[in-house]
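Chapter summary example.
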Amino acid sequence: MNKVLGIVVALLLAITLLPACGGGGGGGGTPPAYTGFMQAAEGQWVEYVISSDGEEYHQKMEHIGQATVDGKTCIGFEMTMAMPQQGETIVQMWTDAATPQLVKYVMKTGDQVICMDVSQSQSPYKPPETETPSQYNPSLPDISYGTYPVPGTGETVTVAKFESGPGNEVWVSSQVPFGTVKVIASGTTTLSLYNFGTSGAQRDISKQEMENCMQMPGF
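The structure predicted for these 219 residues follows.
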């Protein structure tokens, strides 16, 4: 489980904290179709291939809609990680609909649902971006553009490429929920889009399981 936490933290930092400065220039011709991140909505989902320490596994993020959690109107997301030899782990996160503040999150491995401590100053899990981050603003200068073939659909999406130093890039798209398409760190691809959809997300941790989660020391 510690390995799962470490990989997730590293990739989230790569996506959200790399200070993008644009790419090598978009050139002329038809204006690129990047206008910022798609508006978040219930039912959206993305599936990524994560590469770390010579291993690959799939990670799925789903927008599971709105609900009242701990007395607050919240928006819910589920992240499912399927790692070789470690099985499937599901994390459910609820954020205040009025603010980006995390209200509740729980983790399920096997049949056990554990309450995670949202008071921790550095939560190991973060919900996806639901608005365009400033570092991926389509108005920034010197953005480079391209296309990306999505393996799971055969569809090709238009991407904007933001660089953050030699060998570091984040590719984003207006056609993909939550924006992120590919992350390259030190010349190595650590995250790449495998599949996505704008409907069909399903909740795997039930309301009852979430409300009756088990509190464990250290979580």
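To summarize the output: The radius of gyration is 18 Å.
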